[in-house]
Amino acid sequence: HVQLVESGGSSVQAGGSPRLSCQPSGYTVSELYMAWFRQAPGKERDGVAAIDKSRMTTYAGSLQGRFTISKDNAENTLYLQMNNLKPEDTAMYYCAADYTVWGPGTQVTVS
User: What is the predicted pLDDT for the residue at 19?
Assistant: First the structure.
C-alpha cells in the first residue's frame, strides 16, 4: 500500500528555482512509474513530467527546459526541479505513483 508525501512547496518571486520532493512509503521509487501533476485554481489537473523505471522522462511541452524530473533511488525520493518560475506556474503540485496513488499536494505560489 503506497503512500506519497510531497514537500518543498513555497512562495517565491518570479525567476525563482525551488525543488519539490516526493517520498513514497511502502515501495521504492525504483519500482514505480512516477509523475508530477499540477492544478491551478479553477483549472483541471495537468501533467507536468513523468519518469519511468528506466529513468526515461517525459514533459509537458510547454515546461520542458524549465522543469526537470529526477529520482534518487538511494534517498528513495522523486524530485521536480523548477527553474525560472512564472506567476502562471502557481498551482498545487501533486506527486503520483503509477497514476493510481496521489500525494496530498504541495503549494507553489509565484509572485
Answer: 98
